[in-house]
Amino acid sequence: MSHQRPKPGLRRPLLLVAAFALVLAACSNSGDKNKTASGSNSSGGNGRPGVTDTEIRFAALGTNSNNPLGTCVLDCFANGIQAYFDFRNSEGGVNGHKLVLSKKVDDELGMNQAKALEIISANDTFATFSATQLASGWGDLAKAGVPTYVWAINPAQATGHPEIFGNSATVCINCTSRAVPYTAKLAGAKKVASLGYGISENSKQCAQSNAEAIKKYSANIGGATVAYVNDALAFGLPNGIGPEVTAMKNAGVDMIFACIDLNGMKTLAQELQRQGVRNSIKMYHPNTYDQAFVKAAGTLFDGDYVGVGFRPFEADATVGALKSYQEWMGKANKPLTELAMDGWINADEA
To answer: Would the pTM count as exceeding 0.85?
Structure first.
């Protein structure tokens, strides 16, 4: 598979703003009612919840059970956080304080808000990491002044909250993107399809914005046009995707941009193969950066493109953060996954 990596540009100024926001958020997360003379209690080190004389404690909130994607989310996310903490603690921690992931909370997909309120009520962690499908509790964490570091796939819940920091910048899902037409140009596409799930507003908007991006930049990418759009697919494709593939085949589609999960992409690829057009239609994957998953699929995804929001694991890692990530994940004997890298990036921000 081919990997396309976003170009750097706004990262440094964004981090400067984030650093200042974190100071404010940290201050708002401390309360006079929790101050102690010694600062030795987990809920009151100098009035800061989760800060003791020797530790800074964090919570991780996300989805393990009932995950409709069938992928590793919270556990892998926490692996990356812990690997970064191990790395930082080996250098003395932060101002003599050890970084500790003291609790990992499964929101069971539909209980993110309830679990977030439990973390707030316990008042024994300094900040919260979160990787979830349904971010209903992020607003409560922000309102309580808890610095929250997240897998940034829920822009609506993060927008307007300076207390929330994503592994990447908060995206505008319904804005056009140059990455989509650029990938179509790389693939030599002439007729493009755009797909999304009807149950997810984010997925629907993504499908529409991909189509609009192709239209906007058509003249710059060899005249590629939009031949098929469907933003009403059933989540998980429980009834398959045969009629839709036939429609795309009849429309002469040679590239598909889909705002769906990796299992959905596999179902789509298998149907393309069944109808004899897999080799002539390339796909762009937004969520399939999973080596084990791709390997298990054999040659099914050969020639496709996948988006990744960080330096790919396949890149030369002789220096820099990627080298440290691979080294410390190896020491923990944990697999290199996209969610683990997101957790590592969030931990580095924290």
So the answer is: no
Structure tokens given for 324: 């440290």
Residues 253, 220: Cα–Cα separation, whole Å: 19
Residues whose CB is less than 8 angstroms from the CB of residue 227 and which lie 6 or more positions away in sequence, other chains included: 191, 192, 193, 248, 251, 252, 253
Instruction: Label residues 230-266 b or e (16+ Cβ within 10 Å = b).
Output: bbebeebbeeebeebbeebbeeebbbbbbbbbbbbbb
46 — pLDDT class (breaks 50, 70, 90)? low
Q: What is the pLDDT of residue 323?
A: 94
Beta strands 127-131 and 98-106: pairing type?
A: unpaired
Q: Exposure of 9 by Cβ count < 10 A (0-12 exposed, 13-18 middle, 19+ buried)?
A: exposed
Helix count and strand count (H, E) for the chain: 12, 11
Indicate the burial class of 15 (C-beta count within 10 angstroms; 0-12, 13-18, 19 or more). Answer: middle
Which pLDDT belongs to residue 36? 36
Residue 115 has pLDDT above 70, yes or no: yes
Residue 154's closest CA among 168, 175, 140? 168
Segment 299-311 shows an average pLDDT of: 91
R_g (Cα) of the chain, nearest Å: 22
Give 2 or 316, the one with higher predicted confidence: 316
Distances (CA, A) of 62 to 66, 114, 236: 11, 12, 20
CA pseudo-torsion sign 82, 84, 85, 87: positive
